[in-house]
């Protein structure tokens, strides 16, 4: 991902950055053979072969059987050092958390939704969550736990491992979540904004040629994760994709949770829909109530959802025109509503240049509610293998370059 540098083309050395990229691709399931690694990384087969051999020698990568190829002899299947290794992860919301086990190569196990009160502050809520994650780890064998990952509903300073200036996480500002997790679990910890985790998780499940994408999480609030050239793009201060606070004329002077007025969040988020429907006399108290009404084709809810999708599409169109991605993925609980998805898609086709939409894919996130959980777990595994690589550096003998 963005904290792992890509190899240089034509480079003749098996560099740590190349090894990290190899481990990243194997961990996420995007490449499972030497040939696939060479194609993905645009590197000479001899360079990849040397790097993989060194990783196998150090126990960071293992070979498990073969699979048929389109030509030539069968290819050896590559996995992380042990197929029984794993990470535990959680995708945090305001009142619930999605938790589970993430396996090398792209598997998910023991996924469930548990209560999580983010308003209780980091120490209390993380302690309860840690007990749940520890139970998952014990079930699979604590000795094989390699990392822990969290997807957080607020801006994350990846370098310090803390949430910064979150508008919906009272008491969490600057709390050292990463250090807290490392001390509690004794393994590398990864934390990232929930929309970024969703973007990472979704990216690994799609064809390799989709190297530019925007993934939008539409729930109580709105967030977006950006994949540029196959890597997560965080921006200069980690705030890339924060479309929820873009000003929109339709919002007028409605106050936003950020302290400003007129933000997209105030007219297109789940929280906004709850407010709008309650003002119209509907018996709604949560985003789940909105989804229930709209799924039952309630006219008032359907109109409100369609309007929200149009507003989201309006803001998203400016970003799509600017960035020209291969795909736009829609996730979060409101993405389950067809009127909203249809409104976003319609607005994008209406407002974007034809060259931008000619080959643009617009679809729901294929991983559904597990996209953020999966992305957080993948990040944790990547942190674990990068940590292991630092502790067992590779030789830098020069193979033949492509």
TrEMBL record:
InterPro entries: ATPase_NBD, ROK, WH-like_DNA-bd_sf, WH_DNA-bd_sf. Belongs to the ROK (NagC/XylR) family. This is ROK family transcriptional regulator.
């Amino acid at each position: 991902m963005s904290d792992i540098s890509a190899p240089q083309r034509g480079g003749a050395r098996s560099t740590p950055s190349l090894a990290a990229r190899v481990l990243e691709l194997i961990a996420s399931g995007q490449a499972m053979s030497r040939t696939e690694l060479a194609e993905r990384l645009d590197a000479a087969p001899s360079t990849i072969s040397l790097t993989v051999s060194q990783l196998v020698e150090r126990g960071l990568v293992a070979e498990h059987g073969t699979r048929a190829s389109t030509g030539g002899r069968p290819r050896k299947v590559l996995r992380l050092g042990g197929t029984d290794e794993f990470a535990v992860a959680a995708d945090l919301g305001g009142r619930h958390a999605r938790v589970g086990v993430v396996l090398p190569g792209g598997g998910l196990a023991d996924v469930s939704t548990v209560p999580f009160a983010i308003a209780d502050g980091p120490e209390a809520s993380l302690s309860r969550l840690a007990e749940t994650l520890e139970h998952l780890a014990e079930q699979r064998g604590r000795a094989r736990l390699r990392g822990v990952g969290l997807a957080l509903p607020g801006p994350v300073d990846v370098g310090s491992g803390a949430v910064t200036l979150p508008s919906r996480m009272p008491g969490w500002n600057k709390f050292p979540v990463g250090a807290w997790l490392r001390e509690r679990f004794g393994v590398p910890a990864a934390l990232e904004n929930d929309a970024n985790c969703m973007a990472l998780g979704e990216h690994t499940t799609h064809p390799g040629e989709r190297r530019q994408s925007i993934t939008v999480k539409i729930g109580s609030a709105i967030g977006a994760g950006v994949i540029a050239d196959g890597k997560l793009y965080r921006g200069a201060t980690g705030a890339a994709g924060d479309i929820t606070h873009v000003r929109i004329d339709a919002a007028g002077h409605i106050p936003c949770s950020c302290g400003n007025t007129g933000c997209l969040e105030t007219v297109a988020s789940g929280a906004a829909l709850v407010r709008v429907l309650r003002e119209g006399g509907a018996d709604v108290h949560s985003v789940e109530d909105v989804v229930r009404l709209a799924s039952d084709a309630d006219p008032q809810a359907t109109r409100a959802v369609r309007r929200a999708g149009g507003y989201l599409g309006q803001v998203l169109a400016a970003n799509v025109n600017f960035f020209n991605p291969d795909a736009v993925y829609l996730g979060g609980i409101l993405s389950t509503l067809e009127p909203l998805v249809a409104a976003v898609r319609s607005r994008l086709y209406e407002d974007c240049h034809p060259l931008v939409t000619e080959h643009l894919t617009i679809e729901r996130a294929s991983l559904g509610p597990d996209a953020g959980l999966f992305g957080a777990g993948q990040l944790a595994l990547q942190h674990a293998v990068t940590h292991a690589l630092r502790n067992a550096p590779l030789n830098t003998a020069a193979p033949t370059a492509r």
